[in-house]
Amino acid sequence: MDGIKEAAGLVEISLDQERDASHGWEKSTEYELSKQTELILKRKLPLPKALFEQYSHLECKSFMGIFPEIHRAWFTVDNRLFLWNYATGSDFYPFEGIDQIITSAAIVEPRPGVFVEDVKYLLAVSTTVEVMLLGVCFSGPSVTSEITLVPTQISVNTDNVAMLKLVGSRGRRLFMAGRDGCLHELTYQGETNSFWSLGSRKARKLNHSKSAFSSLIPSSVRLFFSGDDPLIDLAVDDNRDLLFALSEYGNVTVYDISKPNRAYKIASADAAADAKRYSPSSNVRDRAFLNLSAVPAQSSSTVNLVVVTTLGERVYYHMKTSRASLRSIRANGFRSTPPLQSEAFRPSVHTSAWIRGALFLADARNGDNDTLIAIFPEKHPSSRRTDYRFKTPFVPVELVAETALETHGGFAKAWAIAEASRPRQNGLKTNESNPPREVIVLTNSSIHLYTRVEPRDHLEELLSSRGSDAELDALFQHYGNKEACAMCISLAADRASESAVNADIIAAATNIFFAKGGEPSFEEFEPEQPRQRPRTAQFDIGRPSTSPPPLKFSSAHDGICLHIARIVSPVWWTHITSSRKPEEYQALNLRTETLLSVREHLVATINFLESSSTMLTSKRSKSQQRTPNRPANSSLQERLYKGLLPRRQTDEALRLEQISISNLKMLAEKTAEALAMMNLLSEHQFHRLAASLTPSVLQELVRLRFCELIFSETGSHVCNALLEALFAAYSDQPRVTEMVSEALRERAPSFFGEAEVSLHRGLTLTRKAARATGPEAAALASEAVRELKPYAGRIVDLQGVCNDLRTAGALAPMAELTVAAAAAGETTGDVELVDNACKCAFDALEILILAEDKSRDRVRDAMLKILMEQGSDALVDRLFSFLVGLGPLGAEELFKWPSARVEKYLQDRDVQLLWRYFAKHGRNVDAAVVLTSLADSEDSGDLNERVSFLASAVHNAKVASASGGDSRATSLLREVNDKLDVAQVQLRILEELRRKHGDAPDAAQACDELSKKLLDLSMLYNAYARPWELWESELDALRCASYRDDELVKRLWIDIIDDALSSNSRSSSPSSLKATMASLGRDFHPSAAVFPVPFIIEVLERHSMERRSLPAWRESEGWVPWTMVEIGVPRRDILAAYGSILEKGNVYQETGWESGSTLYLVTIVTDFISEWTTSSVKSDSSRRELSSVVSDVSRIASICRGVLRSFSDPTAFDMVKNLDSLEARVEKLARQT
Predict the structure, then answer these.
(1) Which PANTHER family does the record associate with it (predicted)?
(2) Domain count of the chain?
(3) Torsions phi, psi of 156, nearest 5?
C-alpha cells in the first residue's frame, strides 16, 4: 500500500502539472506561427439542397447558427425556421408556424416540472415583435434522432425592440440582448392544467437595465429616446452567477443573476477605451467588437471575461471583490492582432469563437473565401531544471495556424463557429480546461468539421514516414523529453490493439522510448565540501559524508507517470456519487463508457510495462557493466571516490526508479480493478446499494473521490460496505451471488481477495442463521463466526451482523466476533471500530442483565467469560466501565468475577465500589480501610458523605471484629469509632453554623472549609465552635473529648435556653424550647458532664414559672419533667432533681426565683407523680418502675411536706393531704406488683 501511495503521489503531481500547463494562456506574450499542419478537415458536409431552394424565396432577412447541444444547424429565411442534423446529414426539419421575420434563436433547457418529459429542450425564437418558446422533442433517446418542434403558447411582446442575442443559463433562465441597449429576460410559470406549456398570460418580459416605470412609457416614445448602442452579445458564467453584456461600442456590463427573476448591475467597463490604452497605435476606426466569452474557473484564476474585436484582438477582464462585497471589473490583459502568413493586410474578422483559451477567427481579408485562423495556447518546456518537487517550468506561447475554408466553386463565408460535442483524447474524456480538439464551422454552403493535430499525431506521422534522427530530435526538443516519451507510450500501448496501426510504428515507438528515455540520476553536489562527520563516525570506502542528494527520475519514468495521469484524469478526482448530501438520491457519478474506456487504456499500459520489463531491467545491468576511467596517477582514495561512487549512485538511482515504475504499474493495476468494480456496482443499481448503507458509511461515500478508493483507508472501508450491500441484495439468490463473486475475483482481485471471499461467505451464513431456528441456527452462526473472526476488522456493518447473530440466539459466538473486531480496531488505531464492537456486545449484555431473567443466566455468564478471558486489557476495562454504568445490577455482575484485575480496576477507577467488592467477598477490614480512606480523600463529596463513609467503616469493622478472623479489626474499630465521633461533631458545627450565621459574610468560607475535609477536634472547637458561639457544638465537643467543666457547661445551657426563648414568637409558647431540649437531650444524655439534669430542670422551671401568666405556658404547665422522660432521663433522677431544688429552702431567695415558686414546684411534682400513678395502672412496665422507686417518692413527698409546713395558706394544707394520698397510692401499687 505504501508503494501505491507513493505512485499515486507522483501521478497527482503530474495531474497538477497538466492542470497548470492548461492554464497560463492569459500570461502568454508571444505568438508563434505554426510550421506544420495544426488543423485538418475531418469532414465536410454540404448544406441540404432544400435549404438552397428556400433561399430562392428570400425577401428580407436570413440568419444561421449552430446548436451543438442537439447536433443541429439552424437557418432562417424571413419567417421560416429550418433545423438540420449535421451529425447524420439528414433530418432537415422545417417549421413555418411563425408570422414575423426571425432575428435570432437559442437552445435553452426547460424549467423542471413545467413540461412533459418528452420536451428535452426549448427553442427560443425572436422575431421583430415577440419572443416565443417551442418545445424540442426527439423520436429516440439520442439528440441525433428525428426532431419535432411543438408550440408551447409561451410568448412575450418585444415592444418593437429587436432581440439581437438570446442566451440561456444553467438555472433555466432566458436572457435577451435588446437593440435598445437593455438586458431583457423572458420568465414563465407552471400551470397544472396545461399539457405542453403554460398559457401566454403566465409569461412576461423583464427589463433588467431600466426601472419598472419605463414600462409605462409608450414603446414609440421609448424607441425615440433610446440610445444607439445596442447589445450585441451575452455570456453567462454559471459558476459565479454572473451575466456579461457587450454593446456595439464596446461597453461591458456585469449583472448578478444569483436571485430568481432578478439581475442586478454590479460593474461595468469600457472595452474600447481599454483596447486603445493597451494598443494606442491601432486605428480605432478599424476596430469593432464581435463578442465576449465568460471564462470558466477551471480555465483561469485571473481572467473572468474575454472580449474579441474585428482585428483579432482580445481584452482580458478580471472581477474583483472588495471587503464590502462590492465587485468591480477591470482589464488585466490584452493580446494584439496575431501575426499572419500574409502581412499585406490586417485581418478583417467577422465571426469568432473563444473556447477555453483557444481563439477561432473567420477572416474575410481575402475577399470571397474566408480564412480560418486558429490560435492555440501552448507551453514549451524551458531550459530550467525540472524536478517532481517543483512545478514544471513552461514558457507560454500562442500557436497561430491558418487554413482556407474549402469550397467547390463560388465563395465560402463562415457564419458560425462552435465546439463539437466534447471529444475524447485516445478514447478518454479530455481535461475540462484543455482547448477544444474539434470545432465546427458553418459556412454559407457547408459544414466543416476541423480536428486539431495532436503532438502524438506528429510523432506517428514522423515514424510512418521514417523521418530522420534530426527530425526526431527536433520533436523531442520541441515538446520536451517527458512529453515525447509519453507520446511513445501512447503509440506503443494504446494503439497496440488497433489493427489499423502498423506494427513497425509500435516497435519504433517502443525503441525510441527506451533509447531517448534517459537514466535517473542524483542531483549534483560538491565533493570538495564534505559534510562534517561526527567524531564517532568511521571512514566508509565509497560513501561520501554528504547528505543524500535528491533523485531525478529519467524521462522514461516521467513519461510513464504522465501517461498514466492523463489516462486517469477523467476519474481521478471525481466524486463517486452525484450528490454531496447523504439524504439525496445517490447515483454513480462515473459514466459506464468512461469507466470502460479508462480501464481499457490502463490495461494497455499495464501490458506495455509487462512486455517491456526486460528492457527496463537491462538498463541496470548495463550500468553495472560500465567501468569508469581511472587516471593512473590518481591516489587510491581519489580513484575510489571518483570511480566507485558514481557507479554506486547510478545503480542506486536505477534501483529506486525501477521500484517507482513497479509502484506505478501496481497503481495502474489497482486503478483498473477499481474501475471494473465500480462498473459492476453500476450494473447492479448503485443507487440502491448506496441507499442501503449505514448513515456513517453513506456520509463517507458522498465525500469520497475515486482516487481515494485506491489507497485510502476510507476508500477501502467504503468498498467493503458497497460489496456487503451488493451481496446482501442477492442474499436469497445464491446463483447470482456466485456469479458476482466470480466476476469480482476475476476483475478486481485486490478488492475481492481471499479475505473478501471469507467475509462474503461468513456474512451469507450469518443471514441464513438469522432466518433459521433451533440447532440449525446455532450451527450456522458458529460457522459464520469462524469465517468472520480472522477478518472481523473489515466488517463494515458490524452492528447488522451482530443483530443477525442475536436473532439466531448465538450470543456467545457474537461475543467472540466482537472481541476479534475490537482487537483489530486496537491494532489499526480504528477507535470507531472498537466503539462499535463494544456497543454490539454491551447492548446484548445490558438486556440480559437488566431483564433479571434467571433462565438466561447461563448465556449471560458465557458472554462475560468470553469477554473477560479473550478480550484485551482495553476491552475488559471498557466492559468493567459498562457494568459499573448499569448501576447496582451491573456492579453485582462485576462482583461475581473476583480477580486482581477487577480489584485493580476498581482501585483505579471507582474506589466507592471497591469497598462494596471487599464486603461482598468477606474482606470487611479491607472494606473499612477503603471507607476510611474515602472519608479522608480530597475527591470525596460533602461532609455528610464522609460521615456516611465512616459509619459504613464502623459497621464493617464491627462485622470483622465479631467474626474474629482478622486481628486488625479491634484496633481498627476503635480508631474508626473515634474518627466517626469527631466527624459527627464537625457535622453539628457545620449545621449550627449555617443555621445561626448563614447570612454572615465569613460564614460561607467557614462552611466551605468544614465541608471539604475532616478536621481534628481541637481545630473544630477552637477555630469554629467557640469563635462562632456555637453552644450546642461546644457541648458536643466537650462530650467527645470527655472533658468536664461544670461552670462552662451551665453557661452554655443558659445560652442555649435563652436563645430558644429569644424571640417573642418563641417566648409566647414553650413548644420551641421543648423541641430544642428534647433534641439536645437525646444527643447528650446520659452524659452528666454535658447534660446536668438538676441544673437544666431548675433553669427550665424558672422560665416556666416566670411565663405562667401566658396562656400557652399555663396550659403546658408540667412539661419539663415529661420532656425529661421523653429524653430518656429516669423518673428517679427527675424526682431527685426536684428534691434537690426544694431542699434549698426559700428557693426564690437563693436562686433568684419569684415568690411563690415553692408552691409552683410542689404542684409540678405532685402533678407529675399523679400522672405517673395514673398511667401505671394501664401499663405493667410503668407499674414495675413505680414500685422500684417507692422510697424515692416517699422522700420527695416528705421534702414537699416539710416545705409546705412553713406556709399558713390553706392551699398548702390541701397539697399536703394530696401528697399523703399519692404516697399511699404508690405504696399500694407497689404491693400489688
Answers:
(1) NUCLEAR PORE COMPLEX PROTEIN NUP155
(2) 6
(3) -135, 150
Q: Of 909, 937, 967, which residue constitutes the final position of a domain? A: 909
1193 pLDDT exceeds 80? yes
Mean pLDDT of the chain: 85
- Do 768 and 895 belong together in one domain? yes
- Does residue 695 sit in the same domain as residue 761? no
Rg (Cα) of the chain, in Å, rounded? 52
Grid cell, residue 518, equals: 534517459
Running DSSP on this structure, what letter comes out for residue 783?
A: H
Q: What is the C-alpha to C-alpha distance for residues 1108 and 1114, in angstroms, rounded to an integer?
A: 5
Per-residue cell: 371:
480564412
Residue 398 CB neighbours (<10 A): 19
Round to whole Å and give the CA distance between 485 and 514: 9
Give the cell for residue 1064. 417573642
- 214 and 241 belong to one structural domain: no
Amino acid at 406: E
Q: Helix, strand, or coil here: 588?
A: strand
Question: Is residue 607, in this structure, part of any structural domain at all?
Answer: yes
**pLDDT score, position 1209:** 76
Say yes or no: 509 and 402 in one domain. no
Whether 213 and 247 share a structural domain: no
Q: Distance between CA atoms of 254 and 318, rounded to whole angstroms? A: 11
Cα separation, 311 vs 457, whole angstroms: 32
Residue 405 lies in a domain: yes
405 and 501 inside one domain:
no
- Calculate the CA 972 to chain-centre distance: 57
Backbone phi and psi for residue 1036, each to the nearest 5 degrees, phi listed first: -65, -40
Choice between 119 and 500, residue whose per-residue pLDDT is larger: 119
Q: Are the beta carbons of 381 and 392 closer than 8 angstroms?
A: yes
- pLDDT score of 429 more than 80: no
List the one residue out of 154, 116, 122, 148 whose CA is nearest residue 135. 122
What pLDDT score does 526 carry?
47
pTM: 0.66
Q: How far apart are CA 32 and CA 38, in angstroms?
A: 12
Q: Is residue 931 within 8 Å of residue 949, measured between CB atoms?
A: yes
Name the burial class of residue 763, with classes exposed (0-12), middle (13-18) and buried (19+) by CB atoms within 10 angstroms of its CB: buried
Q: What is the pLDDT of residues 1069-1102, one digit of tens each?
A: 898 899 999 999 999 999 999 999 999 999 999 9
Instruction: Identify the domain containing residue 581 by its residue range.
Output: 544-712
* CA separation for the pair 432, 424 (Å, rounded): 11
Strand-by-strand arrangement of the 358-363 sheet: 31-33, 394-404, 371-381, 358-363, 349-355
Q: Which of 810, 834, 830, 820 is nearest to 759 (CA)?
A: 820
pLDDT > 90 in the chain, percent = 48
| CATH code of the domain containing 577 | 1.20.58.1780
Q: Is residue 13 part of a domain?
A: no
| Residue among 243, 109, 239 nearest 172 (CA) | 109
Asked if residue 747 belongs to a domain, the reply is: no
In 399-433, which positions are buried (b, 16+ CB within 10 angstroms) versus exposed (e)? bbbbbebebeeeebbbbbbbbbeebebbebbbbeb
Straight-line distance from the first to the last Cα atom of the chain, in angstroms, rounded to the nearest whole number: 103
Between 584 and 534, the more confident residue is: 584
Q: Which three cell numbers stand for residue 42?
A: 475531418
Domain boundary residue among 196, 218, 240? 218
Cβ proximity of 337 and 313 under 8 Å: yes
φ/ψ of 403, rounded to 5, equals -150, 135
- Tell me the sheet residues that pair with 46: 446
Say whether 924 sits in a helix, a strand or coil: helix
**Rounded to 5°, angle at Cα 733 from 730 and 734:** 105
798 and 883 fall within a common domain: yes
DSSP SS3 for 75: strand
Q: Quick one: CA dihedral 208, 214, 220, 226, positive or negative? A: negative
Same domain (yes/no): 572, 691? yes
388 and 10 Cβ atoms separated by less than 8 Å: yes
What span, in angstroms and rounded, lies between the C-alpha atoms of 265 and 1180? Answer: 110
